Every structure is written in structure tokens, then in C-alpha cells.
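Readers of this paper often ask what the protein records in our data store actually look like. The remainder of this section carries one protein's record, kept here as part of the documentation.

:::
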Amino acid sequence: MADEKYKTLEVVEKNPKSGVFHLYLNRPRQRNALTHDFFTEFPKALYALDHNRDVNVIVLSGAGDHFCSGIDISQLKSISQSYHDAGESLRRQILAMQDSVTALERCRKPVIASIHGACIGGAIDIVTACDLRYCTEDAFFSVKEVDLALAADLGTLQRLPLIVGYGNAMELALTARRFSGSEAKQLGLVSRAFPSKVDLDQAVSVLAQEIAAKSPLAIMGTKTVLLKSRDLTVDQGLDFVATMNSARLLSSDLTEAVAAQLQKRKPVFSKL
């Protein structure tokens, strides 16, 4: 898994047997700008990690000085030049790029975004599809698309309002203004903002290992229920989780969790 080769990504297992794998956006000289290769490779990498039984948690971050500067200008130029051949073919291209980002939600394993430096445009699409988000205080964010005469179309306008509220999302999307990691914490876009990248890396590592030590089946179920319930009424969400848990409550993980509690030891859960 860690030896898989990609043009725009790198997969690393820093602490063997921890269950935590790191997925890096890996074009540091280009500030990890997103290319066609990225949109092809990203869902493949997530699928591989999702189906690797040694993976419990995925940490997504950027190599070099920035998380991601958004879609590569050359990619936008290519789209612009094909404007006269637009229509259904361009729509299919946008839908395919959307699907690449939504792969984060399809992944059963939780994905933690660890953000430093720039997080701009398409990077906002990516982090809003992650399950948890953390950053440095001096990270900077921008929903940049209106400055490029575009409406953000890869998920930001759908997911950001659910995270920071409709009014905040509208203001950020219409102005394209830059805001700091500290403000991202105030808005609720990230759970915590840290003074330095060293602090961020250490905190995310501890958090990821804590989650990875829990029942993979329970973690997967919790992610599934939260995502599903986002689009359901409370009653529908309750019915969904009742149906799901009725099929899973008799798992060996439950038996192991109860035994570990009674015996005052760490549980050993089955791999997913």
C-alpha cells in the first residue's frame, strides 16, 4: 500500500500497525495544485485505502509549504479553451471531478484533513468532504471561484453551509475573501487551530491513533449514520440507525468491547 506510486499523491504509513495511513497531496513545487491526474488518482487511492484491512484512519495533508492552492491554472485554461465544445461533455467532466471529491464520503474509513499554508478554491471542496478538519492558526483559506468568474462546482456550495452556516457560507463564497486558520476555527470550519505545524502534526497524530484504536465497525457505522442522517429527517435517521445496528450489534467487536471493559484491558478488534 505505502509503495503504491502516484503522480500527484503519496501514501505513507509512518507508524506501522497503528492503523493510521497518511495520504499526501504531492506536488509541492506547484503548491499541490489539482490537475487532471489528481482527479483520476484521488478516488483510486481512497478506494485502495478503504479496502486495505490495515487502514483504520486516513490523514490527508499537503506536502511542502501548503495544503493545496486549488485547481491548476492550466486545467482551468484547458476547460476555458473547450468552452465552445461545452454542453453535455463539459457537464460529464464536472460530474467526474465532483465524484472524485465525493470519494472522501464514500470511503468507509474516517478521513482527517490536516491543513497548513494555503487552502484555496478546490481545496475547500476537498476539506469540506473530509470527516474532521484541523489547521494551523496561520493557514489561509479562500472560496476563490468567483474571482475566476466561476461558481464553485465540486461541493463547497453544498457542504460548506452545513458546516459553517448558510450566512457565513454565502459571505465567504460571494466575497472570495481570505480568512485565517484562527477565523476558520471561529466559523466552525475546523475543530481546532494550532500555533505551528509541529503542534498540528502532533495533535492530529494522537487523535488519529485514538480513533484507529476503536472498533473499525463502530467507526464506520458512525460515519455512515452521520452522513446519511444529514439528508434525512430525525425520524428517518433514527429508523436508519436502528436498522443498521440491528444487523451489527451482535458483532464480535461488541463482545470484545464488553469483555475488555470487565477485564480492564485494551480491546483487540477485528479488522474491517
